[in-house]
Amino acid sequence: MHLSAPIYRLKRNARDLARQQGIPLHRALDRVASEQGYQSWSHLASQASQARPAAAVLSRLVPGDLILIGARPGQGKTLLGLELAARAGALGRTGFFFTLDYHERDVRQRLSELGLPPSADAGAVQVDTSDDISADHVIRRLASAGTPALAVIDYLQLLDQKRSTPDLATQIGALRRHVKETGAICAIISQIDRSFDLSPRKMPGRSDIRLPNPLDLAAFDRICFLNEGRLRMEAAQA
């Protein structure tokens, strides 16, 4: 059963409903869950947790992986990245979330609304919103962590905007060498070209990844595509 919106948005809808109708939050949550076809909010949360794409991705990650996560806006690529960082502890790792697109307050808010499983620790995620984010910046942060890292970078195209930083291919090459040498795991979120919206295909592919400058996608170990609640994960060098 597919939700009509991500769980964090449904929880926000329930809070609005509780305020508007002056009812307890738990009743509002149950009402929203009923509208989605579930017996209660706890039933919805339990089922949604089992179906989360992050669980499928985490189960396939190995030390040294460099992966790309691609989707159109609103399809859950940022939420997937946030959850991967929040669940890094389950792999004995420190989670990092590097973003050039959000303020830390916004990231923390979205983490708090994810409805994460008990094993996740959103508060332990190291959030970095520095304007200096680049491959070198990420590598320095990971090297200073003192523990194995699972890093998420939001997002690929923004790494390529500053003239003062190396070109995109050089940065991705540096990140690949770092994760291979240290056993870190790094996931990079990517935009998908808007032309995909006019395509009859159910899932984007490599040709849909928006690359303003040349980049050999074989630098990645795996590519994850998201669309309409579905996940496809493939080897980048296939």
TrEMBL record:
Q: Name one Pfam family in it.
A: DnaB_C
User: SUPFAM superfamilies attached here?
Assistant: P-loop containing nucleoside triphosphate hydrolases
Query: Which InterPro entries does its entry note?
Result: DNA_helicase_DnaB-like_C, P-loop_NTPase
Give any single GO term for biological process: DNA replication
GO molecular function annotation? ATP binding; DNA helicase activity
Query: What residue stretches are annotated with the SF4 helicase domain?
Result: 138-225
Q: What is this protein called?
A: AAA domain-containing protein
Q: Which organism is it from?
A: Salipiger abyssi
